[in-house]
Amino acid sequence: MDIYHEAHGNEAGRPLVLIHGALSGIGTSFGTILPLLAKTRRVIAVELQAHGRTPDVDRPLTVEHFASDVVELLDRLGVGRADVFGWSMGAAVGLRLGTDHPDRVGRLVLASVSFDDDGLHPGLLDGIQDLRPEHLHGSEFHEEYLRTAPDPAGWANLVTKMKVLDANLPQWTPEQIHALAAPTMIVLADSDIVQPEHAVRMFRLLGGAVPGDLTGLPACRLAVLPGTTHTSIPQRADWLAPMVDEFLTEVGPHGQG
């Protein structure tokens, strides 16, 4: 499959892969933060199967397929290891890269991620199977798709395939999260689709929530954005960019920094 990607910033800089959310593309997920992050590093922004400029193929949409596609893209580009910043569905792809392809990942920034169904607010996906493509007509995601997709008529098929993914969300065990080797920054909106208690639980599993003055700072981070919803996280670039940049440039495992 021919995966669309864009390269920005310093070609010699440490690579950072940006992975967008469901039904989104590079513009709606990272349009404002991408140029800020590209000031100091090589940014590789991708569009996954059936999203944006990447055509669909005869294959279900799964987080596992997406992660394998990103690895294949890195192989084509000759990139051995990259940092990853994913939002929403893209954060799940980033987490899958971290657990299933640990040798390809440096640091992870995961915005709005849940490692099991209990992490979402109860009932959040009730009725998702009743969602019809036309319900999203006029949204920023639909308008971006019409501008960028090789087949603008494919929107209905994308929504249909995404409903199947939503009904079979990826799952990780607490043991898998605890064993994650990549230093990880969890980002959450204070009014997100993921419950804050779940983000704190994940932070603890990664080694966080310790008295840092006594023990030293852990390799993981937790950032909660105030007055922010799930879909408005991409609009918080002025807040996120310096935090993400500082985390990614910190000296740490895998020769980073």
Automatic annotation (TrEMBL):
Superkingdom to which the source organism belongs:
Bacteria
Alphabetical list of Gene3D superfamilies matching this protein: alpha/beta hydrolase
Pfam families per UniProt: Abhydrolase_6
Every AB hydrolase-1 domain range:
16-241
SUPFAM superfamilies, sorted: alpha/beta-Hydrolases
* InterPro entries attached to this UniProt entry: AB_hydrolase, AB_hydrolase_1, AB_hydrolase_fold
This chain's protein is named Pimeloyl-ACP methyl ester carboxylesterase
Tell me which species this is from.
Micromonospora luteifusca
